[in-house]
Amino acid sequence: MTVTTALPHADAVALADQRLAAWLKHEGCDEPPPAPHRSVAADTADVPAEAPAERLRLGGRVLLDRDGGPLRGGPGAGYYDRRRLRTPAPHGTHQLTLTVATGAEGRTWVRLEAETHTTGSGVRTPCRVPVPELACSLLPLLDAADGPVAVQSAPRVLTAAEVDGLIDELCDPERRLPTVVASVPVNHDLDAWVADVVRPLCRQLPGLATAYVLDPGARTEFNVALEYHTVYGGAVRTYLPEVDPASRQDGARHPVLARHRIEEDLRRAAGLLAREPRRLAAEQPLPPPLAAVPVLRAPAPGVRAGTGPDDAPGRAEQAALAREEQQDHAERQARADELERVRHSLRRERRQGRRLPVDDPSGGAVGGLRRGVQGRGLAGRLCVGTGGASGRRSVLPGPAGHPGAPGDRGPAVVPDSFTELMARLGEFPLLSFTGDQKSALALDDLRCTGAGWARLTWGGLTALQEYAEAAVRGEAGGDFKQWCEHTPTGCHRFPPRKAVRGESRTVFSHTKWKRERMLPVPECVDTSRRAFMGAHLRIGGGRTAPRLHYLDDCSGSGRIYVGYIGLHLTNTRTN
Known about the structure:
Blueprint: E1 2-5, H1 9-26, E2 51-59, E3 62-70, E4 78-89, E5 92-103, E6 108-118, H2 133-142, E7 145-146, E8 149-150, E9 156-158, H3 163-171, E10 179-182, H4 190-201, E11 210-214, H5 216-225, E12 236-239, H6 248-251, E13 256-257, H7 259-264, H8 266-283, H9 288-291, H10 315-355, H11 364-376, H12 418-423, E14 431-433, H13 437-441, H14 447-472, H15 480-485, E15 499-500, H16 505-509, H17 511-516, E16 518-520, E17 530-532, E18 536-538, E19 547-553, E20 559-566
Parallel strand pairs: 9-11, 10-11, 14-20
Antiparallel strand pairs: 1-6, 2-3, 3-4, 4-5, 5-6, 7-8, 10-12, 12-13, 15-18, 16-17, 18-19, 19-20
C-alpha cells in the first residue's frame, strides 16, 4: 500500500505507532515502549540526525524494529520513520513494514508492505498474504489519498451527478492506484447487491485500489461518456492508471470480471479482482521520498545501535563483524536500488509499447513490442492500434477469413508459413505465446500442408484475439466455443467444430499425457508457472494434425495464453 496523508509527519508516525500498539495488545503481545523522540523542524533543511535503530522483543518470536532519520540525497532531502514487525506464522514468519517518509516538498507518504517468509523444505500450497488489519484501520485515520482522490477501505456508491468526478479521477495523471468500478445487474436491488456481492468481492482491495459502485443512473452516464471503457450487467472493471477515454485500443488494457465468474465462486473472484492491483503495487516505481529511504540496519535484539562499550573483549572480532555488516548493508542497498531501476524500466516499456505504431515499415515497432512482451513476461496489456484512413496496412483478416473487411480494416496479409506467423505474434495484443517455438517452426518442414495449416492457425489466433477483446469488456457471451458458434457480425469466424473446450477424461487422468499439456504461464496466473491447457484448436485433420493449446484467462489477467502450437500431443489415437 502506497498513499499520501495530509497529516504532518510526526502525527502520522504517532498515529501509526498507536494503531500498531493496539493491534499488538489485542494479539496478546507486549506493548512497545514509546519510540525515541525526534523533533522535526518545519524546515526540512534542519533534519534531525539519524535516530538510533532498535530491536524490541515483544513476546515469543515477536520482534519490532524501529529506525528513522534523513533520507538519502543529502541535506534537505527529507526524513523518514520505519517500523518492521515480525510475528510467527504456521510455516514461517509474517513481516509487516510501515514506512512514513516526507520529502523536501513537504508531502508525506505512507507505505505498508506485508510479506510471508516460509521456512523448511516441505511442499506447501502457496497462498496470498491477506490485507493487514493495520491497513484497514489506518486508511480512514490518515485521510489517505492517491493524488487528489481519497483512498477508502470500502466501495462507495456513485450517483449520476458524481460520474464526471469519477472520469476525472480515471484520467488524472497523478493516479497510481487502480480504480475498480462495479455495476449492478438490471432489476437487482442496489443495496442488496452492494452488501452481498460487491463488499465481499472487494475485501482484498483496501489500500491497493479505490472502489466504486455505479447506481443505475450513474451507469448510463458513465457508459455514454466512456464508450470504449464501459461496464454493465453486474460486471466489475479494473481501470489501470493512464486511461485514454478516446482510444478503443486502450479499452482492452483494463480487465473486466464478468458477472458469471463472480456468482460462480465469490471468494475466487475476489482473488482474481485483487490480482492486478497486487501486481501493480509490487511493480510501480516508488515515489522519490520512499525510494530515498535507506534499507533497514537493525542491531541485535535489545541492543541500540552504537552502545557497545569500547573496552569489551574481542575488539578485533567486533571490528570484523562491523565490516561484514557494512558490506552486507551496501549489498542490500544495491539490490533495492536495482529493483527500483527495474520498476522504472518496466513502466517505460509499457508506455512505449502502447504508443508503438503498427505500420513501421521496418517491422521495428511490432518487433519491439513483441520482444518487450516476451522478454519481460510482465509487460501487461500492451495494445497496438489498427490502421486508419491514411493508408495503413492492417494485419488482421476480415470476417470469415476474407481480406478487406469493410469499415476499420484494410487488406489482410495472412502468413503462409509458421516462421512468419511466429514472427508476427506481437500483432495480437491480448494473446501471449508462452511455449517453445520449435514445435511450431517444425511444421514448415511438412511442405504439402504446412501453408494451409499456417493460414488456419492465423485465423484461429485472429478469432481468439477478437473474442478476448469482447471478453475483457464482459461482452463475449460465453467461452470461445460459444463465440465461434455465435460469431458477431463483422468478426472473423473460426469453425466451431475445430474449437475444443477440453481434453477427454482419459487424457486428463493419464499422468504422462496430462504432463505434456501442463504448459508455461506467467507467475501471476499460477505460482508454479505451469497450467493445464486442455482447451485447443484443431488445425487440419488426421491423427498427426497440429493443435493449438491455450488457456483463457480473460476474466483474470485479461489475456489468453497460447502454450503450444505443433503436431498433435500424445493421446489414445497417436503413437
